[in-house]
Structure formats: C-alpha cells, structure tokens
Write a structure and sequence with these properties.
heterodimer; A: 107 residues; alpha+beta; two-stranded antiparallel sheet; 14% strand; elongated; B: 285 residues; mainly alpha; globular
Chain lengths: 107, 285
C-alpha cells in the first residue's frame, strides 16, 4: 500500500531521491518542501544541519535498477528484523503484512 | 548455561532498588490519574501547559508540522486545542514532558533515544488499536509510553545486571526478555509493574505494563494486548532506529484479541507510521 513513502537514513539517500514530506528543522521552520529532488549539494547541507533521516518517495521513476536494489534492501531488512520469528504464526502474519505494506501485495 | 547466582534478582530487591528513583513530576502524575476523567478541566490543563515554555514550543512545533497539514497556522495553545482537540493536546503534552523527565532519569550508558522512539511509537500504535477495539485511547497511549519503563529502571538502578543482560543478548542474538529471564530470573515487565505500583499508577496501567510481554497465570488485559501488538508493529516498521533490532515475540492470545484483516493491517500500519513521522519533533531536543 505504501510503496510511495519510506523513511531513509540520510546517509543512504542518493541524489535524485524525492522528498515525500515537508522537511522541517527543529524549530518547525520549513527547510525543503515535499517533492524536492535532492541533489548532492542539498544532501550535504542536510547532513551539515544534523538531519538524520528523511521521508522519501520510494519509487524514483526512470531508475528501475535503483528501485529494485532498494526493494531488495527493504526485504532483507524485514527478514533480519523477523529473524527470531521461527514458526510463530502471529509473527509470520505480521511479517507478511509488513512486507505487503513496504513492497506491495505479492501477486 | 550455569548462571552466576549473584545476578539473579527478586521482587523485593527490585522494589528496594527502584526506591532510589525520583518520582514522576506532579504534572505527569496528575494526567495519569485523570486519564478516565471525561470532564477534565480544559482551562486548568491549558494553564498548566502554558506555564511550561519548553513544552509550549514543542507542542506548537508538532501542531504546525506537515502531518496536520496546517503549517504555520497554530500560534497558541488555544489554537492547538481547536486543531488537535483536547485529548490529543493532553497526550502530546504527556509525551513531551515524560520524554524530558525520563531522559533525565536514565543512566548515561542507556540507549535512551531508541528506547524513547519505541515508547512513542508504541503509544501511537496502542492508541490506534484501542480506538478500533473501543478501549480508552488515552490509557492505551500512556500505557504505550510507559510499557518499557522497567528497562529504564533496570539500567539505572541495576547497571551491572543490565550490562550482563545486554551482553547475553548480543552473544546469543536473542529476545531481550529471554536474556533478562536467563540472567535475572525476572523481566522488565515485572520491574515496570513494581515501579508503576510504587508510583501509585492506576491498577489497569500497572497491569498493562506488567503483562505487556504476555499473560501471567491466566491473567490478561486488553490494554496489555494492544500495547503488545503495537510494540511489535513499531519494531517491525523499523521505527526504533537500532541496527540490531529484533521484533519481539508475539503472544498468540494477544494477537487474536487485537485481530484485524489484512486490509485493516495496511491502514493501521500507514496510520502508525504517518503519526510517528508527525510526532518526530517530540523525539528531538
């Protein structure tokens, strides 16, 4: 469902990433509006301001490889977070809900 | 594994140990005690919040964040009450003050940031689930905020024990509660309950804290179930911000009690993540 937004550590954002939400500083002032395409320079200045993570649009159109890599990274992370789930049915259900939420419902 | 017996704790030792912790400030306790009070005096609440400038600043920051879509239009506590409603303002105020108080209480080595991200996320999730199940939303929110208070108490009052638990967890890459039970012969849910009782929290809140990792001897609590599931969701959504995080074990009885359809789960997860992002300003100083 939410293949549109995901929270990303700033260090992992690459130029071309699109901000999904307005980015505010700690005083509530607008730093960058939603929809901003982050450039190398913008990423550097956000890092300088101590921004640790940003909410970005998950699909960057026209860059299929990167999108696939990001999906793979998300899938691996979910596997890791659920590494102790074993045969706990409730946990496997939650895992499948989270996977759908992050990556879309499997067809 | 043979345990060093010196590391085992019992309830009496814990009660003695946590007695050294300062109590929560009167303001926070008062909110906790008026949780079920539908007729809580709005004017009195506003007066109290307005007397705390740091709190006012944080509240307005959240109310003005893009999450509420009203950027720049909320200039006063009165405005915030209109935009967010009394209950939400009270909950935000609670989260903001508790974050400050508990942060000041925590031992230097304690990973307070992850702890508080999980607490705030669980509070938001528990509130969302409580609304669906027609439980008291505010109680669920506060129970979520405080569910892991026993971890903070252990780390602060029994730093050596806590370090041994953490070492065990890292060595075996296991659930935190399992490491606690192996090393201490009790877990932070019990410690939290003992502390909540000492602080004279209402009994349903003590129970929710004590039972949040599972029912005990058949005792159960709806509030504990929503906190339990919300906690798992927050870890699963990776909101805690800890590289070695692990989704806590879900108790089937609680999962069933909260039970929702696949479609509902997507709505709940989205709502939880959106609200967490909106509250982000409460997490930073």
């Amino acid at each position: 469902m939410s293949e549109t937004n995901c929270t990303l550590p700033l260090a992992e954002a690459t130029p071309g990433t699109i901000l999904a939400l307005d980015l505010l500083d700690t005083y509530g002032a607008l730093l960058l509006p939603a929809g901003t395409v982050l450039s190398e320079a913008l990423l550097a200045s956000l890092a300088q301001r101590g921004i640790e993570q940003i909410v970005v649009c998950d699909t960057s159109p026209g860059d299929e490889t990167e999108s696939a890599a990001r999906r793979q990274r998300l899938a691996n992370r979910i596997e890791y977070l659920f590494r102790a789930a074993g045969d706990n049915i409730a946990m496997r259900e939650l895992q499948s809900q989270i996977t759908s939420y992050r990556l879309g419902r499997p067809s | 594994m043979t345990l060093p017996p010196a590391m085992a704790l019992d309830a009496a030792t814990v009660v003695n140990g946590v007695a050294g912790l300062p109590s929560l400030p009167a303001n926070a306790l008062e909110v906790i005690h008026t949780l079920d009070d539908e007729a809580a005096d709005t004017a009195a609440i506003v007066r109290k919040i307005a007397g705390d400038q740091a709190l006012v600043t944080r509240l307005l920051r959240v109310a003005n964040s893009s999450f509420y879509g009203l950027s720049g239009r909320v200039n006063s506590i009165q405005d915030a009450l209109v935009v967010l409603g009394l209950r939400s303002v009270r909950m935000l105020a609670m989260a903001a003050t508790l974050g400050r108080d508990l942060g000041g209480m925590a031992a230097p080595g304690f990973a307070f940031r992850s702890f508080w991200r999980n607490s705030v996320g669980t509070a938001i999730g528990a509130r969302i689930l409580a609304r669906r199940l027609h439980l008291n939303e505010e109680s669920a929110f506060v129970a979520g905020l405080l569910h892991d208070i026993g971890q903070l108490a252990l780390a602060t009052c029994f730093p050596n024990h806590f370090a041994a638990v953490e070492a065990y967890r890292q060595q075996f890459d296991c659930h935190f509660v399992d490491a606690e039970r192996a090393i201490l012969n009790l877990d932070h849910a019990l410690v939290g309950k003992l502390l909540a009782e000492r602080w004279q929290f209402p009994s349903h809140l003590c129970d929710a804290i004590g039972l949040h990792h599972g029912p005990d001897h058949g005792e159960s609590s709806g509030l504990a179930a929503v906190v339990h599931v919300a906690d798992a969701m927050v870890h699963a959504l990776d909101l805690v911000g800890d590289a070695t995080d692990m989704v806590p074990r879900i108790v089937p009885a609680y999962w069933k009690a909260v039970g929702f359809s696949w479609h509902d789960s997507q709505v709940v997860l989205q709502d939880l993540e959106d609200q967490f992002t909106g509250m982000g300003d409460l997490l930073t100083d």
